[in-house]
Design goal:
This protein is an all-alpha fold. A two-stranded antiparallel ribbon has the order 1-2. Strands 3-4 form a two-stranded antiparallel ribbon. Strand 3 and strand 4 form a beta hairpin. The chain starts with a helix and ends with a helix.
């Protein structure tokens, strides 16, 4: 008794905090040695004393708890023991003590000690499960910093068992914490519950737990296997959170788990994207299913968290990004803007990689602030860049140039001292070093030091002018952006560039062309080497001059004279403009007889020269318009430069060819793509000109550099001749219908133009006498039309936006006279719009300077897209309300170009900035016309497109424009909520056009309208009813399988006619398969909701489950979902019944229907099988299902068997017709035979699906005691055996036919072979 009292006193002393740790350990050791001397009852008393201390919070440390495992061991060894709970065996008493321990609230300070204590206690599986659940429930009261330690103890405890429960509880614990944190963040609370957990603390704790779990899995193979098994369960996919994904990625670093984890993640990502797409496309699916897990946002959140204690996850994120791109890049080629789940997955991989990697230039941007204040950092940076600039590696040189340009942007120069411009490089180095010493002493950066530093960099960059073409191109493009950031360097930059331009510039004003292009490219053997991007050089100079002028205007220095270098640059640019206007392609050795093919080095060289000339024309156009400030003269010069651009384009693309007519005068035609024809036409023997003595003349006269064009007539025909002397260019047009065409002659450098007279009219003649210069008329400028497919344009996107804004939105009275000159040329307007489309496409594909920075989220690029979208939509609105567009020639209309550009901008915003779509749509619509919310703005844009669509249909032109507008409506429609009035209006509008008889019989338009209608009704309600109406119309217009059947007239949709029915049929098949896939997916979702849920250790006081998963649906909810599925299948059944009676042609039409029927019976089979598996939850079969099964048995199945017979019959007829064809049509016959074989394979699949449906229907009938097979006929026995005699006879027949074919070939040899001989 005294010994028991002593131990009791020692236990109380151990529970206090007054003892040192070493003393406490010594006392525990003594007690453990002597406690075995006590009887069982005394040990029970001591154990109950410890439990009471835990209840009351007296146990503040774990010293006394080290005695508890020994006490329980002694109690367990007793046969019979008596205590406060009664008399029972030791094992039973131990269980009661554990139950008493776990059913009470624990003090948070002793939770970790209890967990450590449980490792030493021998526990049965039930006791271990009870303890584990209690420990996880206590995490709610623990500080978040102590949770990782508890998880570690639990992982150690998992060696005793219940590994699955512990792993699932760890994942569920942090899913709950993350959800609480998200809720708190949404409600603007920074802390979670009473534990006051901040986000950073939670992330740090999760990162530590991830490390603990990874280490445990590495050590325990059984635990690792359990984790891999848990990944493959439906619960794991449903509870995917940033923590669970990070845990999986961290474990993927272990080689044996890498492929398993990444396969799981790829599958989960693709499934998530498909589920999101499916729910967004169907209104009734949204109503009947839960929100799926958004894996894209989960992964991006994981990337964000990787900087807050999850750094060990980055490696897995990088590997996952590469694997996503590798797995889905083949399906996403040339698709920068994602359209399918696979493409979204590929883009997600790209975003993951971009988020994890920081490019070299970004690294340089990060250390630039240090370079402002540290001499050593600046010196080290310059040494690295100088070494890279002279590296043999081209990429290293480009990186060095990029680094220098970045330095020029960051080190601002506010004013250059007058003496700095005259300093040489050595003096600049000395000045720079002195200023750097000053920087070390004084933290603030010296402006004089910046000036010297920037001038030193420019001196270093001068060496790049002798390097490769790619380095020069990067330099010229980068200096343009430097000017915008560091305007005070304009004079020095222009001086650098102007000295390079003078190597190619012809200073004599009388010389054309003004630039020497031959040194810009060279041919070395079979390779063509580019040497100088001359167009970009001129572009950088003109941007410098224009930017300096605009900067002076903004700063109030407009009247100040330009520096000499900039003045010289301006005079050079003005000279280039004047001389390029009068230059012809032949002046650049780009005549129409030159080789422009890509097969030869000469052709590649000429193409490059042509691209240089076109780039020069565009650069000078930009300069002329920007510097002219919307004057009449600048607009006229811009059009003339555009005219020269198109001439070069036609020449380079070999679209303007000169031909010599024999036996009459055939003149060549120069055709410009895009619709305009700049042509010369002739009539045979009808054009009369000057001929000497009736002789045959072939004359081409050019004196002093003149170019002359001569049309020759043989056999006495008179040739019309246009002669230019002294550098003049003459063009001749020939009058048709026997008219006399006048000749325009220019002597002594004159330029002459000739107009055309048709049907006997006389054409006017314009003559310039010797020594005079013929000035172009300013009243009417004849401009060649815009090509359809442009070369990469040298115009900047910013300039294109500025020009389009002037053309479409400028309302200043003083500008209208000049702008009228540009607007009068629809060709020029369409050219600028085409360039805008090209720039937008480059942004999409990231193939330009603007497009390359999309992933960096540049605000400037976003603003450009916003401005361009506003301009294009403004023009679309103007056209919609009746404002006349410029006169349109043949080719694409302005409305078409605007709609296409706007559509591509929408796709870019949707792909790159989806979170800014509302801002974009609200920004493009004027404030006085738009609505306050996204839905109203979107609907306003759709109404504008509806008006344009109606105008395009009434114009009776090509339906391509109308189809494009329908595509934009389909793109915008997803931003209208399902069931809204706006979407209802769109649905009614589409249905009205589909039912209107004014649409005609345009098959592509009918197909587009049908697809849009089925898509919009799926968003508004169920699309199955509309599909059934389509099927009825198709059945009526194509006809019935039985020719004797008289069909009742069905004309619900006017777009379906005899000519369009076969075009609409594939659209109907596609949407029918989508509907059936949606139903099949919903059945799978129902299975997961009724499947047993994983046991959760987190239980409320009332015993209710508090897991993070969705709760199991009630039988009543289940019955409602099944009824909705049956309704959809009923309408799909009506569609099938109509189509199986239609006289479809063999091939794709019948094969598509066979696939749809197979899919329908598979879905029916899955529904019946699922209903049978859960029939114990229900008392009877749903009435909707009974009616559906009855309709399948009475209506569809008999007609399906008849359709199979019909299909086999028409297949046999088709084979006999193909066999009767001549030998020359064997290729087509084989193709048709292949299609028929495909149909033959589809029929057995269909029959198997029907039989499996009937099999599961029989099983459900037995369970429900209901005869569901009442309306089904017993299937025909299809057992068979092979008849050897029949097979041998068939083989012999085939051999005889082949030998007969060989004889026919000998008698009738191949005509092509005979011709060759």
């Amino acid at each position: 008794m005294i010994f028991k009292t002593a131990i009791t006193v020692c236990v109380n002393i151990l529970n206090s905090d007054q003892l040192q740790t070493s003393v406490a350990k010594e006392i525990v050791g003594k007690i453990l040695l002597e406690i075995g001397r006590l009887d069982g009852t005394s040990v029970v008393t001591l154990a109950e004393l410890l439990i009471d201390g835990i209840k009351t919070g007296a146990v503040s440390n774990g010293h006394s708890l080290e005695l508890f495992p020994k006490m329980l061991s002694i109690i367990t060894s007793q046969r019979l023991i008596k205590g406060s709970m009664g008399e029972m065996s030791g094992v039973e008493y131990k269980a009661h003590l554990l139950n008493d321990l776990c059913r009470n609230k624990w003090d948070p300070g002793c939770v970790l000690h209890i967990a450590n204590m449980c490792r030493e206690i021998p526990l049965s599986p039930e006791e271990l499960k009870f303890v584990v659940k209690k420990l996880f429930r206590e995490t709610v009261s623990l500080p978040i910093s102590e949770v990782p330690a508890l998880i570690y103890q639990l992982l150690v405890l998992s060696t005793k068992g219940h590994k699955k429960l512990i792993l699932a509880a760890i994942r569920e614990l942090f899913v709950r914490l993350d959800n609480k944190m998200s809720t708190a963040m949404e409600t603007n609370h920074r802390e979670v519950s009473v534990t006051r957990v901040s986000r950073s603390d939670l992330l740090q704790a999760e990162g530590t737990v991830i490390l603990h779990v990874t280490f445990a899995l590495k050590q325990d193979q059984e635990l690792a296997k359990e984790f891999i098994t848990s990944l493959k369960t439906p619960d794991s996919r449903a509870s995917l959170s940033p923590f669970n994904v990070a845990l999986a990625l961290s474990i993927a670093r272990l080689h044996r788990f890498e492929s398993i984890v990444f396969d799981f993640l790829r599958t989960a990502i693709l499934k998530s994207l498909k589920d999101i797409e499916r729910r967004g496309a169907s209104h009734w699916i949204q109503e009947k299913s839960h929100d799926p897990c958004d894996m894209a946002s989960v992964l991006l959140t994981t990337v964000d968290n990787s900087s807050s204690g999850w750094d060990h996850v980055v490696e897995g994120l990088v590997l996952l990004g590469f694997q996503l791109m590798e797995s889905f890049a083949a399906k996403s080629r040339n698709m920068c803007v994602p359209q399918t789940p696979q493409q979204h997955a590929c883009l997600l991989g790209e975003k993951l990689l971009y988020s994890c990697f920081k490019p070299a230039i970004e690294l340089l941007s990060a250390i630039l602030p240090l370079a402002h204040f540290s001499l050593s950092v600046r010196d080290s940076l310059l040494i690295v860049l100088r070494k890279s600039l002279v590296s043999k590696n081209l990429e290293s040189r480009k990186m060095a140039v990029g680094g220098y340009l970045l330095l020029l942007k960051k080190f601002k120069v506010f004013a250059l001292g007058p003496g700095l411009r005259e300093l040489d490089s050595s003096q600049l180095d000395i000045l720079t070093q002195s200023q750097q010493v000053e920087v070390e002493v004084h933290p603030s950066t010296s402006h004089t030091g910046n000036e010297a530093f920037c001038l030193e960099i420019l001196g270093t960059l001068r060496r790049c002018l002798s390097q490769q073409y790619e380095v020069k191109l990067l330099l010229y493009q980068g200096l343009c952006s430097v000017l915008m950031e560091n305007m005070k360097l304009a004079e020095n930059i222009v001086d650098l560039l102007l000295s390079q331009l003078m190597l190619y510039y012809e200073p004599e004003q009388e010389v054309t062309p003004p630039l020497k292009l031959e040194p810009c490219v060279t041919v070395m053997g079979t390779d063509t080497v580019k040497l100088e991007p001359l167009d970009h050089l001129v572009k950088c100079i003109q941007l410098s001059v224009v930017a300096f002028d605009e900067h002076g205007a903004r700063s109030g220095e407009e009247g100040v004279a330009l520096p000499p270098v900039l003045e010289e640059a301006r005079s050079v640019l003005c000279s280039l403009v004047e001389r390029m206007i009068i230059s012809e392609p032949e002046d650049f050795l780009l005549d129409r007889s030159a080789d422009f093919s890509s097969a030869s080095s000469v052709g590649v060289k000429n193409k490059f020269l042509g691209s240089l000339v076109m780039g020069l024309y565009e650069t000078l156009m930009e300069y002329t318009f920007a510097s002219g400030q919307l004057s009449q003269e600048s607009c006229e010069q811009t059009l003339k430069l555009y005219d020269g651009y198109v001439k070069v384009f036609n020449t380079v693309n070999e679209k303007a060819t000169a031909s010599v007519a024999k036996g009459g005068a055939n003149a060549s035609t120069s055709v410009a793509k895009g619709g305009a024809n700049a042509s010369t036409s002739a009539t045979k023997g009808g054009a009369t000109s000057v001929a000497k003595a009736g002789a045959n003349a072939s004359t081409s006269v050019a004196k002093a550099g003149a170019n002359a064009s001569t049309s020759v007539a043989k056999g006495g025909a008179n040739a019309s001749t246009s002669v230019a002397k002294g550098g003049a260019n003459a063009s001749t047009s020939v009058a048709k219908g026997g008219a006399n065409a006048s000749t325009s002659v220019a002597n002594g450098g004159a330029n002459a133009s000739t107009s055309v007279a048709k049907d006997g009219a006389n054409a006017s003649t314009s003559v310039a006498k010797a020594g005079t210069k013929a000035k172009p008329s300013t009243k009417k400028l004849s401009v060649t039309s815009v090509p359809n497919k442009l070369w990469p344009s040298n115009l900047r996107l910013q300039f294109v936006i500025r020009l389009l804004k002037a053309l479409f939105m400028d309302s200043i009275p003083g500008h209208q006279q000049a702008l009228a000159i540009l607007k009068a040329s629809s060709s020029f307007v369409r050219y600028i719009l085409s360039v805008a489309l090209q720039k937008i496409q480059e942004i999409r594909d990231r193939t330009s300077e603007e497009g390359a920075v999309v992933m960096q989220g540049q605000k400037k690029l976003w603003k450009k897209c916003m401005a361009l979208g506003r301009i294009l939509f403004n023009q679309m609105e103007s056209l919609a309300i009746g404002v006349k567009a410029p006169k349109t020639e043949k080719g694409r209309s302005i409305a078409d170009l605007c709609v296409e550009g706007f559509s591509q901008l929408l796709e870019i915003v949707e792909g790159e900035w989806p979170e800014k779509m509302e801002e974009f749509l609200g920004g493009v619509v004027p404030a006085d016309k738009g609505e306050a919310d996204l839905y109203g703005t979107t609907h306003h844009i759709i109404r504008t497109l509806q008006t344009l669509f109606t105008a395009a249909i009434n114009a009776s032109t090509s339906s391509k424009d109308a189809i494009l507008m329908l595509g934009v409506v389909s793109l915008l429609m997803k931003y209208l909520p399902s069931g809204s009035q706006q979407l209802e209006q769109v649905c009614g509008w589409v249905r009205g056009h589909a039912q209107s008889k004014e649409q005609g019989s345009d098959a592509p338009l009918a197909k587009a309208l049908a697809s849009l209608l089925l898509t919009v009704v799926a968003r508004q309600s169920a699309s199955a009813q509309t599909m059934e109406g389509f099927a009825q119309d198709i059945h009526y217009h194509i006809g019935d399988c039985d020719e004797d059947v008289q069909l009742q007239e069905s004309d619900q949709f006017a777009i379906i006619s005899k000519t369009t029915a076969h075009s609409v049929l594939p659209v109907l098949y596609t949407h029918c398969e989508v509907l059936l896939s949606d139903i099949d997916w919903l059945i799978v979702q129902l299975k997961s909701e009724f499947s047993p849920q994983a046991e959760s250790p987190f239980v409320d006081d009332d015993g209710a489950s508090d897991s993070a998963h969705h709760g199991t649906a009630s039988p009543t909810q289940h019955t409602g979902v099944v009824a909705a599925i049956c309704d959809q299948l009923t309408h799909a059944l009506g569609t099938m019944c109509e189509l199986v009676q239609t006289a479809l042609s063999p091939g794709l039409a019948t094969n598509g229907l066979l696939k749809c029927l197979t899919k329908f019976y598979n879905v029916m089979s899955n529904l019946v099988k699922y209903y049978a598996s859960l029939f114990a939850l229900f008392t009877h079969v749903c009435n909707h299902l009974i009616v559906l099964v009855e309709m399948v048995g009475k209506e569809l199945s008999p007609k399906t068997y008849s359709f199979i017979t019909y299909t086999q019959t028409i297949d046999e007829n088709a084979r006999s017709e193909e066999g009767a064809k001549s030998k020359h049509g064997r290729g087509k016959a084989k193709s048709a035979a292949g299609k028929l074989k495909k149909e033959g394979r589809s029929i057995p699949d269909l029959i198997f699906s029907m039989e499996m449906f009937e099999k599961h229907l029989i099983q459900l009938s037995k369970k429900s005691k209901t005869d569901l097979m009442e309306h089904f006929k017993r299937s025909t026995a299809r057992d068979f055996k092979i008849d050897g005699q029949t097979v041998q006879a068939k083989l012999s027949e085939n051999v005889m036919e082949e030998s007969g074919d060989d004889e026919d070939d000998e008698e009738h040899p191949n005509p092509k072979r005979l011709k060759t001989v």
